[in-house]
Amino acid sequence: MVTAIKERTTVEVTVQSKSEFQPENILTVNNLEVFYGEKRAVNGISMIVEKNAVTALIGPSGCGKSTFLRSINRMNDLIPGASAKGEIVYEGLNILSDDINVVALRKEIGMVFQKPNPFPKSIYENITHALKFAGIKKKSLLDEIVEESLKKAALWDEVKDRLDKSAYSLSGGQQQRLCIARTIAMKPTVILLDEPSSALDPISNAKIEDLIVKLKKDYSIMIVTHNMQQASRVSDKTAFFLSGDLIEYDHTEKIFTNPSVKKTEEYISGRFG
Questions:
Q1: How far apart are CA 115 and CA 175, in angstroms?
Q2: At what angle do helices 123-133 and 172-184 cross, to 10 degrees?
Q3: Positive or negative torsion for Cα 159, 163, 165, 166
Q4: CA 255 → CA 58, 63, 260, 262, 268, distances in Å?
Q5: Helix (H/G/I), strand (E/B), else coil: 75
Q6: Which pLDDT value is given to residue 9?
Q7: Gap between the Cα atoms of 273 and 266, Å rounded
Q8: Where would I find the beta strands (DSSP E) of the chain?
Q9: Contact 204/153 with Cβ under 8 angstroms?
Q10: What's the rounded Cα separation, in Å, for the pair 242 and 199?
């Protein structure tokens, strides 16, 4: 799938070449800077994201964590005046390079947003819309992908008898799981979640958390969350952002029980943010 995101010559990278790429890592970020016009929102961040793990990004509002997350699949490209420097190495390729096919990249690195955003179509068509656009027309194959995706999103049993109903007939939590299923249908390797349950009730939130833990078996997941309890429950590693800087990045248990940086401890304990 990697070759699909490359359009011209091989990108030369300084962090990791393909031969050096470690299979246990899915992304290497090197000195990433993100700007909105002249304002720098992310300040030279470097980190390695592990494969088949959940990585939580925490920090106060405006600290750069969502900007960082959107950089991973080039969603910031859609914001006028936004630009990025540095490297994000995915399967040995710098995805910030001009010769990356961004549409193909977003199939491999999918994203689910804070507010559920189903299409104004049926449940079935929400899953198949992008598949048909990608050239998949065979009804039996579409049916198979719909069922598989909804099962992986823990939604199949709740909607299998009403796939022709509007996605808007679903509850907020179900709509968010439908959006996750829609992402899964494109067969990504990485799933980015930007506060996926912040607008949901506690029961729906618990279902999303259970789903995240199950999905890491097949996907590498990065999640932005303001909920410290959620980060501690679902993630394997946690990155603490503050004012555009990556303050600390370590195993979640260490971050929450014995952080190395005083600012991390102050944030975790609720002394600011």
A1: 9
A2: 20
A3: positive
A4: 11, 18, 8, 11, 8
A5: helix
A6: 31
A7: 9
A8: 25-36, 39-50, 54-58, 82-90, 93-94, 109-112, 190-194, 220-224, 237-242, 245-251
A9: no
A10: 23
- Residue in the block written with tokens 């990278």: 13
Left if phi > 0, otherwise alpha if psi is -120 to 50, otherwise beta: which for 92? Answer: left
pLDDT at site 16: 37
Q: Are 100 and 89 in contact (CB under 8 A)?
A: no
| Dist. CA 232–CA 10, nearest whole Å | 39
Q: How far apart are alpha carbons 58 and 50 in whole angstroms?
A: 17
Q: Is the pTM of this model over 0.85?
A: yes
Q: Determine the Cα–Cα distance for residues 116 and 25; give it in Å rounded to an integer.
A: 29
Retrieve residue 131's tokens: 């598949």
Cα–Cα distance, 108 to 71 (Å, whole number): 14
Q: At what angle do helices 172-184 and 202-215 cross, to 10 degrees?
A: 20
Strands 245-251 and 237-242 turn out to be antiparallel
Return the structure tokens found at 159: 């909607």
- Which residue, chain included where needed, has tokens 């618990």? 206
Phi and psi torsions of 100, nearest 5°: -90, 135
Q: pLDDT tens for residues 19-55? A: 444 448 999 999 999 999 999 999 999 999 999 999 9
- How does pLDDT run across 140-193, given as a tens digit for each residue? 999 999 999 999 999 999 999 999 999 999 999 999 999 999 999 999 999 999
